[in-house]
Specification:
Elements lengths: L11 H14 L4 H6 L3 H14 L7 H15 L2 H13 L4 H5 L12 H14 L7 H11 L1 H23 L18
Length: 184
């Protein structure tokens, strides 16, 4: 259960944010309602997210795995739920997404994907446990710009996941609408 009311004051900003969320995602995101209690935070978050959406150096599949590995390391069920749904909408393999929490035991990932998830966990650790060998492997495969974007995206997901987890936001049911059930 959320630790903050998901029924913010009904201002023009909140109504606009709700409209955008419904139009883009089919429903109002719980983080929108949570952040709406502080209009300055909601506005800054919206600007920040719009800016981040334009970053395009890193492969989208690698970015998705990094975000989900970060969310899993922090334990943000809202972020995992939404991340799964968002990545499936963009055509990512559901098995790769489902197995992120157990990626070390899974056989569905390439060596580069494993390095990206290991890096996401290392950046997320407190304090960070990033080592030079891993960074060298990533730099060799990705290049400098992609490595910087990967690092920044892991930092961004830390912000999102930690806010959502601290405010008690949990799965909003996005994943449930992703996959067609297998007939019995």
């Amino acid at each position: 259960m959320a630790r903050i009311s998901l029924d913010p004051p009904r201002t023009l900003l909140v109504r606009l944010a709700e409209w955008y969320s419904r139009r883009t995602y089919g429903k109002v995101l719980d983080p929108v309602h949570a952040l709406a209690h502080h209009p300055g935070v909601l506005t800054a978050d919206a600007r920040f997210e719009r800016s981040i959406a334009r970053w395009d150096k890193l492969d989208p599949g690698l970015k998705a795995l990094a975000l989900m590995a970060t969310s899993a390391a922090i334990g943000c069920s809202w972020c995992l739920d939404f991340g799964y749904w968002e990545s499936r909408r963009h055509g990512m393999d559901h098995r790769k997404l489902q197995e992120v929490p157990i990626w070390r035991q899974s056989d569905v990932y390439t060596p580069l994907e494993r390095d990206v998830m290991e890096y996401a966990e290392a950046v997320t650790a407190t304090p960070p446990t990033v080592d030079d060998t891993l960074v060298d492997r990533l730099r060799e495969h990705l290049g400098e710009a992609e490595l910087v974007e990967l690092t920044a995206m892991v930092g961004v997901e830390n912000l999102r996941s930690r806010i959502n987890t601290a405010l008690g936001l949990t799965s909003q049911g996005f994943k449930d609408t992703c996959d067609i059930p297998v007939p019995n």
